[in-house]
Specification:
single chain, alpha/beta, six-stranded mixed sheet, five-stranded mixed sheet, 10 helices, 18 strands, 26% helix, elongated
């Protein structure tokens, strides 16, 4: 009698099932009847899946792999690879580890994996939008009971999830000039980008103040023959380590820059000694000329003794003529503008300016210059 009871828990349906195959999608009969072209969002899918081998730009065949469908059936997985999607908004999205299942009827994008990759998905009344970091990627209206993305083409890219946007690369590269980014794209160091896609950066506009430039001068032909230097601070804010100032040493030949953080202006001599030691040990070079303003930090008795001991000619600017030390002034201004732009963009606390400054210097030394198409780092390191 107990076995025949309708309330017997043995006859109750199981709420959770453990399966060995990866769970691909919640596919209904309505989905199968509708059109199969394009790419469809499936919030019940745990993997990206495609039936078309031609969609893949990288592909690895697989054997004895199956995927479990929403109706408890399994289908064969022929291979796994990467697929690149380009939206009508000209944004690109790379899907990694897409499963190739020839017997499936639709190309499905897992909403779960998009969320996991940091994308924001918004579903409204018959409307689906996707964005990342407040940047719009694409949208689509409901079709045949699902959301079909408006994509154009597939193309290979080495990234896992990469949004190819000019302004995003502008932020990643510490708000450098748009032509520098275009130069990187032309050299194949970053994805293909176009100058017409660049939108004016509001953060750069807030950080920069225009000023008429001065006439250019001839540069030194040999690295480290002439070094420009200046001491600067960022509105007096202390870093987490209590540093208020920073000092820059800039090579006149290829613009390679060294930056050191300081607690006091009087630390300039110690930083200069450290800089000279690094140049001599790492590059087997001797500094011949050193140019700075007429500040007392560079003209103290101990500083002059150090110049004489190492045979360094100290060149100073005329009074109230900061443009004579224009390279250092321009470099400091560029660095400060980049740091302020990064902090405005990221919302970082003001005491992180020191770490941001070191990052800006690191990136600046490794960005190829527009004239010779090579970075100062490669020139100095001879790599």
């Amino acid at each position: 009698m107990a076995r025949k009871c309708r309330n017997n828990p043995i006859n109750a349906p199981q709420a959770n099932m453990i399966v060995k195959e990866p769970y691909a999608a919640m596919i209904t009969e309505i989905n199968l009847v509708g059109g199969s072209g394009g790419w469809w969002i499936d919030t019940g899918a745990s993997r990206h899946i495609s039936y078309d081998r031609a969609m893949f730009k990288t592909y690895t065949p697989s054997e004895d792999k199956k995927v479990l469908l929403g109706d408890s059936h399994t289908t064969k997985v022929a291979g796994i690879g990467d697929v690149e999607l380009q939206f009508t908004s000209r944004k690109k999205l790379i899907l990694k580890d897409v499963m190739h299942a020839p017997e499936i009827r639709k190309n499905l994008i897992s909403g779960f994996l998009l969320n996991k990759a940091g994308f924001t998905q918004t579903i409204g009344v018959d409307l689906y939008t996707i964005s990342t970091n407040d940047t719009f990627v694409g949208k689509r209206y409901a079709t045949d009971g699902m959301f079909k993305l408006n994509v154009e083409m597939n193309k290979m890219s080495p990234s896992i999830y990469m949004l190819c946007d000019f302004n995003i690369w502008h932020s990643r590269l510490c708000h450098v000039n748009k032509r520098v980014i275009y130069n990187l794209s032309s050299l194949g160091l970053i994805p293909k980008l176009y100058l017409n896609d660049f939108e004016k950066c509001d953060f750069c506009s807030q950080a920069k103040i225009t000023k008429q430039s001065h006439k250019s001068v001839l540069r030194e032909s040999e690295p480290l023959n002439l070094i420009h230097s200046d001491v600067c601070k960022l509105d007096g804010t202390l870093t987490r380590n209590g540093k208020r100032y920073f000092i820059t040493f800039i090579d006149d030949c290829f613009d390679y820059t060294f930056v050191y953080l300081m607690k006091h202006k009087s630390d300039a001599l110690d930083m200069f000694k450290e800089f000279v030691t690094e140049i001599e040990n790492q590059f087997n070079k001797k500094i011949k000329r050193f140019r700075s303003d007429r500040g007392t930090k560079y003209n103290s008795h101990t500083f002059n003794e150090f110049y004489n001991k190492h045979g360094i000619i100290h060149e100073t600017t005329a009074p109230y003529s900061s443009e004579m030390n224009g390279k250092a002034e321009r470099k400091n201004r560029t660095f400060i503008e980049s740091v302020v732009s990064i902090m405005l963009n990221s919302g970082a606390a003001s005491y992180w300016w020191g770490e941001n400054l070191l990052t800006v210097c690191f990136v600046s030394n490794r960005v190829p210059k527009s004239k010779n198409k090579i970075s100062p780092y490669k020139v100095l390191k001879k790599r």
